[in-house]
Protein backbone atom coordinates (compact mmCIF):
# COMPACT_ATOMS: atom_id res chain seq x y z
CA UNK A 1 0.00 0.00 0.00
CA UNK A 2 2.76 2.41 0.92
CA UNK A 3 4.64 1.41 -2.21
CA UNK A 4 1.66 2.56 -4.37
CA UNK A 5 1.46 5.90 -2.54
CA UNK A 6 5.16 6.54 -3.12
CA UNK A 7 4.86 5.62 -6.80
CA UNK A 8 1.89 8.00 -7.20
CA UNK A 9 3.89 10.81 -5.63
CA UNK A 10 6.83 10.13 -7.91
CA UNK A 11 4.54 10.41 -10.96
CA UNK A 12 2.07 13.09 -9.87
CA UNK A 13 4.53 15.61 -8.41
CA UNK A 14 6.72 15.87 -11.56
CA UNK A 15 3.60 16.12 -13.74
CA UNK A 16 2.20 18.87 -11.53
CA UNK A 17 5.51 20.78 -11.67
CA UNK A 18 5.60 20.43 -15.47
CA UNK A 19 2.00 21.71 -15.74
CA UNK A 20 2.79 24.73 -13.55
CA UNK A 21 5.85 25.54 -15.67
CA UNK A 22 3.77 25.26 -18.84
CA UNK A 23 1.09 27.59 -17.47
CA UNK A 24 3.73 30.13 -16.47
CA UNK A 25 5.31 30.01 -19.93
CA UNK A 26 1.93 30.48 -21.63
CA UNK A 27 1.04 33.49 -19.51
CA UNK A 28 4.46 35.08 -20.08
CA UNK A 29 4.13 34.63 -23.86
CA UNK A 30 1.03 36.81 -24.13
CA UNK A 31 1.55 40.18 -25.80
CA UNK A 32 1.43 43.20 -23.56
CA UNK A 33 -1.72 45.25 -24.10
CA UNK A 34 -1.18 48.69 -25.64
CA UNK A 35 -0.60 51.57 -23.27
CA UNK A 36 -3.48 53.95 -22.58
CA UNK A 37 -3.88 56.55 -25.34
CA UNK A 38 -6.20 59.28 -26.60
CA UNK A 39 -5.69 60.68 -30.10
CA UNK A 40 -7.72 63.00 -32.30
CA UNK A 41 -8.09 62.20 -35.98
CA UNK A 42 -9.54 64.28 -38.83
CA UNK A 43 -11.06 62.39 -41.76
CA UNK A 44 -12.73 63.29 -45.04
CA UNK A 45 -15.35 61.07 -46.65
CA UNK A 46 -13.64 57.94 -48.02
CA UNK A 47 -10.44 58.55 -46.03
CA UNK A 48 -8.89 56.01 -43.66
CA UNK A 49 -6.46 56.16 -40.76
CA UNK A 50 -4.54 53.43 -38.93
CA UNK A 51 -4.98 53.67 -35.19
CA UNK A 52 -1.34 52.81 -34.54
CA UNK A 53 -1.38 53.11 -30.71
CA UNK A 54 -3.81 50.16 -30.73
CA UNK A 55 -1.43 47.80 -32.58
CA UNK A 56 -2.04 44.15 -31.83
CA UNK A 57 0.77 41.68 -31.11
CA UNK A 58 4.10 41.46 -32.89
CA UNK A 59 2.53 41.67 -36.35
CA UNK A 60 2.44 45.45 -36.16
CA UNK A 61 -1.15 45.38 -37.43
CA UNK A 62 -3.36 48.22 -36.26
CA UNK A 63 -7.10 48.74 -36.57
CA UNK A 64 -8.05 50.97 -39.51
CA UNK A 65 -10.88 53.50 -39.28
CA UNK A 66 -12.62 54.68 -42.45
CA UNK A 67 -15.20 57.45 -42.87
CA UNK A 68 -17.65 55.72 -45.20
CA UNK A 69 -20.40 58.28 -45.61
CA UNK A 70 -21.71 61.65 -44.51
CA UNK A 71 -25.48 62.05 -44.27
CA UNK A 72 -26.56 65.69 -44.06
CA UNK A 73 -30.33 65.99 -43.84
CA UNK A 74 -30.34 69.40 -42.16
CA UNK A 75 -32.77 72.02 -43.42
CA UNK A 76 -31.19 74.19 -46.11
CA UNK A 77 -31.20 77.99 -45.64
CA UNK A 78 -34.39 79.57 -47.00
CA UNK A 79 -36.20 76.23 -47.21
CA UNK A 80 -39.39 75.46 -45.32
CA UNK A 81 -38.83 72.28 -43.33
CA UNK A 82 -40.96 70.18 -41.01
CA UNK A 83 -37.93 69.39 -38.86
CA UNK A 84 -34.39 70.69 -38.50
CA UNK A 85 -32.75 67.45 -39.63
CA UNK A 86 -29.31 66.26 -38.59
CA UNK A 87 -25.87 65.36 -39.86
CA UNK A 88 -24.40 61.91 -39.20
CA UNK A 89 -21.15 60.18 -40.04
CA UNK A 90 -20.89 56.45 -40.87
CA UNK A 91 -17.62 54.73 -40.03
CA UNK A 92 -16.14 51.27 -40.62
CA UNK A 93 -13.53 49.84 -38.27
CA UNK A 94 -11.38 47.13 -39.88
CA UNK A 95 -9.62 44.98 -37.30
CA UNK A 96 -6.26 43.22 -37.78
CA UNK A 97 -7.97 39.81 -37.78
CA UNK A 98 -9.99 40.82 -40.88
CA UNK A 99 -13.30 41.40 -39.08
CA UNK A 100 -15.01 44.76 -39.21
CA UNK A 101 -17.51 46.82 -37.28
CA UNK A 102 -19.66 49.69 -38.52
CA UNK A 103 -21.08 52.54 -36.47
CA UNK A 104 -22.65 55.99 -36.85
CA UNK A 105 -21.79 59.13 -34.89
CA UNK A 106 -24.04 62.18 -34.71
CA UNK A 107 -24.66 64.90 -32.18
CA UNK A 108 -28.35 65.47 -33.02
CA UNK A 109 -29.67 62.37 -34.76
CA UNK A 110 -32.74 60.95 -33.00
CA UNK A 111 -31.64 57.78 -31.22
CA UNK A 112 -28.05 58.46 -32.26
CA UNK A 113 -24.99 59.16 -30.20
CA UNK A 114 -21.87 61.26 -30.41
CA UNK A 115 -19.85 58.50 -28.78
CA UNK A 116 -19.57 54.73 -29.22
CA UNK A 117 -17.33 51.89 -28.04
CA UNK A 118 -16.14 49.13 -30.35
CA UNK A 119 -13.53 46.41 -29.78
CA UNK A 120 -11.91 48.09 -26.78
CA UNK A 121 -11.77 51.51 -28.46
CA UNK A 122 -13.89 54.55 -27.67
CA UNK A 123 -14.85 56.90 -30.54
CA UNK A 124 -16.20 60.39 -29.80
CA UNK A 125 -17.31 62.98 -32.35
CA UNK A 126 -15.53 66.24 -31.53
CA UNK A 127 -16.59 68.36 -34.50
CA UNK A 128 -16.94 68.76 -38.24
CA UNK A 129 -16.41 71.41 -40.90
CA UNK A 130 -18.09 73.19 -42.47
CA UNK A 131 -20.69 73.55 -39.74
CA UNK A 132 -22.99 75.76 -41.82
CA UNK A 133 -25.68 74.04 -43.84
CA UNK A 134 -25.00 74.51 -47.57
CA UNK A 135 -27.61 76.21 -49.75
CA UNK A 136 -29.85 73.82 -51.65
CA UNK A 137 -28.27 74.84 -54.96
CA UNK A 138 -24.69 74.28 -53.71
CA UNK A 139 -22.94 70.94 -54.13
CA UNK A 140 -22.37 68.90 -50.98
CA UNK A 141 -19.27 70.22 -49.20
CA UNK A 142 -16.11 68.22 -48.58
CA UNK A 143 -16.73 67.56 -44.90
CA UNK A 144 -13.88 67.12 -42.43
CA UNK A 145 -14.81 65.14 -39.34
CA UNK A 146 -12.83 65.26 -36.09
CA UNK A 147 -13.07 62.44 -33.61
CA UNK A 148 -11.28 61.42 -30.46
CA UNK A 149 -10.17 57.79 -30.23
CA UNK A 150 -8.99 56.19 -26.99
CA UNK A 151 -8.59 52.72 -25.58
CA UNK A 152 -10.94 52.02 -22.76
CA UNK A 153 -9.15 48.99 -21.32
CA UNK A 154 -5.79 50.34 -20.20
CA UNK A 155 -3.30 47.91 -18.62
Please describe what this structure looks like.
With 155 residues, the protein is of the alpha+beta class. It has one helix spanning 2-29; strands spanning 38-44, 48-50, 64-72, 87-94, 100-105, 115-118, 121-129, 144-151. Strand 6 and strand 7 (121-129) form a beta hairpin. The longest helix has 28 residues, at 2-29. The two termini are 52 Å apart. The relative contact order is 0.18. The mean pLDDT is 82.
Summarize the structure.
It contains 1 helix and 8 strands. It has 155 residues and is α+β, with helices and mostly antiparallel strands.
What is the 3D form? elongated
Biggest sheet: strands, sense, closure?
Answer: 4 strands, antiparallel
Order of strands in the sheet with the most strands? 1-8-7-6
Helix percentage: 10-25%
Number of distinct helices: 1
Beta-strand fraction estimate: 25-35%
Rg estimate, integer Å = 26 Å
Cα distance spanning the termini? 52 Å
Q: Tell me the series of helices and strands, N- to C-terminal.
A: HEEEEEEEE
Secondary structure tally: strands: 8
Mean pLDDT comes to 82
Q: Can you tell me the residue ranges where pLDDT is under 50 for at least 5 consecutive residues?
A: none
Structural class: alpha+beta
Amino acid sequence: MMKNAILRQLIILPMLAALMALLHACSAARANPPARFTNTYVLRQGASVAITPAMVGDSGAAPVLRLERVNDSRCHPGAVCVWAGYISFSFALLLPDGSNSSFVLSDKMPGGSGSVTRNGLSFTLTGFEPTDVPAKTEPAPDYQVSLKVSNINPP
